[in-house]
Amino acid sequence: MDTITQLKKIKKQLHESGFKLTPQRESTLLVLLENEKDHLAAEEIYVRVKEKAPEIGLATVYRTLEILTELKVVNKVSFNDGLSRYDLRKDGAKHFHHHLLCLECGQIEEIEDDLLLEVEKVVDKQYGFLVKDHRLTFHGICRNCRAEKNQL
Ligand SMILES: [Zn+2]
Ligand SMILES: [Zn+2]
Q: How far is the CA of 86 from the centre of ligand 1 (A)?
């Protein structure tokens, strides 16, 4: 799905939940869509939004990110540096995607497959807990770093 279609869809979702998408909020959303793979922190988003909408304040960006988190358009994640980062949920994804964090180069890769259905069944059965979502980050060494090491 292209950025404009995605933007339209999220706009509709916001509208249905009683939120208006002001131009500043729209710029914030656009930055998220354009940097989908980057897992940006609020301050990084702010810097990029400012390029599109110089008049925007950090508080507006924070508030927009809060609303988008509430509506589950984005998920808050944090990796090794402890910063809250914002990550778009994939369209129609029932569960939040998983991450592979490389301890050597810091690269973050995403896994789209759920892979956890069996685990969820066990949790339900043994703990009587109904899983609605989960966060999963694997810490390890990525394909590239492994290849580099083998060459040395
Ligand atoms: Zn992600
Ligand atoms: Zn790596």
A: 8
